[in-house]
Predict the 3D structure of the following.
Amino acid sequence: MTDPENTVAVPGAPTEAVLDRDGLDELVRVLVRRGRTVIGPTVRDGAIVLDELESADALPYGWGVELEAGQYRVRRRADQAAFAHSAGPQSWKSFLHPERVRQWSAERRPDGVLSVRPEAPQSVSYAFLGVRPCDLRAIRILDRVMGGGRYRDPAYLSRRTGAFLIAVECTEPGATCFCVSMGTGPAADAGFDLALTEVVDAAGHRFLCRSGSPEGAAVLAELPRRDADEPTRAAAASAVSEAAERMGRSMPPVDLRTLMRDTLEAERWDDVTARCLSCGNCTMVCPTCFCTTTEDVTDLTGDHAERWRRWDSCYDLDFSLLHGGPVRATPRSRYRQWLTHKLGTWHDQFDSSGCVGCGRCIVWCPTGIDLTEEAHALHQEATRTESAP
Amino acid sequence: MTLAPLPYRVVDRRDETHDTVTLSLEPAGEALGPFAPGQFAMMYAFGVGEVPVSVSRIPDGQRLTHTVRAVGAVTRALWTLRTGAWVGMRGPFGTCWDLAAARGNDLLVIAGGIGIAPLRPAIDAVLAEPHGYGRLNVLAGARSPADLLYRNEFPTWERPFSTVTVDRPDDDWTGRVGVVTTLLGEAHFTPADTTALVCGPEVMMRATARDLIHRGVRPDRVQVSLERNMRCATGHCGHCQLGPLLLCRDGPVVGYDRAEPLLSVREL
């Protein structure tokens, strides 16, 4: 928690401090003054969503969530905690890798000559307040997918580069969470500008705040704060370690990449097909699902054309369409593609798992399909098959 | 330029068959980087859309040559383009035929249908350097005589063996009939020292690779060119996955040692 290697020292600036609620208010004000668009959690339409925050008052103080497979409910908490809730329907990809972006425009001049104008880079400067450790990892995964290969995506990088990340360690995991299995949480160890740990106890409601970058330290220096005290550190550390013990779900303790590779023909895929609607909700809410398709449009004159990119889902029949028909014609093959990519072949393509254990896909599946349950079932089937004579 | 297309003008069009055309293109200004045999470009038909198309010849200079078969909205729009028309081009993308690994080997170039198009630049490269390789065999299959591409070029490829076969002959056809693998018995090659370049429908490539490996060609020396849906060609859209592979990046040309386990799973 207070490992000095994970904090960044700036001469004269604090690396760790305790903030009260007014510190959080000022944090949002300072970021807005610095020209940042601050995005954070807020309650709207019966859910905790991510939206632009004009002040910290919009944070979901006193709200929690109840999660189960196929179920999401906000509920009032007994305390006034701001971050005692787990993942909502959105993730930060909505801002870094938006649902729809224009990639370029083209004109056909009267003589027929074509001229193409690439989209100008986005000038937004984001600050994300309340990034969970699982979602912090998801951003790192997207960094690799969209910006780490031979070709770097300018739409993503223009939003991501310079984004200010305020992580909030997880102290209230949901019934669908399994970040411990995926090694992504509940503690935040790196990759943030500031990290908060919320503490609510007899000594009051406060936030242990650590800086993880020079800009984080500079922002912290501008906030009303007091020195970090040992009781707050201890309370924060135990809140996070207790959260690790309260994960609602877990993955089978095996190498999931190998499990996916070796069970491509398992009978379990038929079982899940009976429940999967191929709706694609899991891919929309997943914080790392990045797939897109393109739309080419023209105006009424026919001489102005645009290329748009929008989110796509591997559950869509057209996703794998070739001359002659779709490669993945059955729902069985499409669910298998999603799960084996997420847990298996993502490693081959991008050097990590594509799953961060946030549980969103379990919550937002209309039929409550639970990928941890599917992984356990595949593991059991593989074990049975191995031990069969 | 990899994300936004560069304007290219159609400077020549040659009808190959009733539904297939070869377009020669020249850049308006900036040109795409050099292509290697087996690589592909994304071709944009104004306002209609974009499709991946392999280079079918690599002339000197900045000219690009692509052979397009009209099968969908975009390819139909490209197929109708006249000389002087404009298209948008991105590329080069993907892996190429590994001719460096084939040096000194006998070569089997095996095509099904329009699969001959991505192979033609490899044939050109081999013919340009006759002492770099062993014997060259070009075996091509097509549905019918009317579907045969580059027919007048086959005689120039007989070093020492080049022939075509069709599934459905017409009344004038005096050539061979049957699937392309039936030609293998006549080809001139020593299996242990042979590299095969194979492009065609997936079922044809599977059957061909199986036959070649059965005859003693090393699986990693059977190179196949795979096709999946492709939207971006830059590894970001996810459409071209085949198991662990992103075919715009790790393909289209893949050794059969890697392709075989993936192609043998239905609907992967």
